[in-house]
User: What shape does this take?
Amino acid sequence: NAGVTQTPKFRVLKTGQSMTLLCAQDMNHEYMYWYRQDPGMGLRLIHYSVGEGTTAKGEVPDGYNVSRLKKQNFLLGLESAAPSQTSVYFCASINSGTSFRDTQYFGPGTRLTVL
Amino acid sequence: KNEVEQSPQNLTAQEGEFITINCSYSVGISALHWLQQHPGGGIVSLFMLSSGKKKHGRLIATINIQEKHSSLHITASHPRDSAVYICAVHLYNFNKFYFGSGTKLNVKP
Assistant: This one.
């Protein structure tokens, strides 16, 4: 098992550019999450998905869009990047059948800088 | 209002010391997770607790459901334990986690 993978690992964007971050998991998990982590702050939930074809907003969704067309993939899009979106982005997944009493798996992170 | 509070925010210890990190939450939960993040690294799950106590090597995690409190203990701390430790809770009827702001631990040789 590869677990949770994220691509790319690093990216530098100019203000106004767009990009898509890809998260993939091979554990057949229903629940997938996108978080951002900023210095001095905890993990903040951007968007999440409870199954293929479903998405929901988290704590800080503005400026981001997501899609879950396949169960194993969860995409995070930035349509028009802003410097405030400079952050480290983590994807995570968890098995849905155990009332969240199972291991939460995280991807290695994507370090994004917006100039 | 933050549903999850961790203390301390920063902790410096000498190698060999016993470490305690605390996590308090304000509402009913179905599960509490302790996570570890090494500098510049990814995030790994250490423990999942719904009651009682769990032990893995030198790490012990406890939870008191009535008091809405959990502790992570590290016995005989080592410099390789230096990391950020994060508490995350899952609330009943929500499909997501709430995270503490993390405790940055530095163990000096």
Summary: The longest strand of chain B covers residues 29-37. The mean pLDDT of chain B is 93. Residues 24 and 61 of chain B are 13 Å apart (CA to CA). Chain B touches chain A through 20 residues (CB under 8 Å).
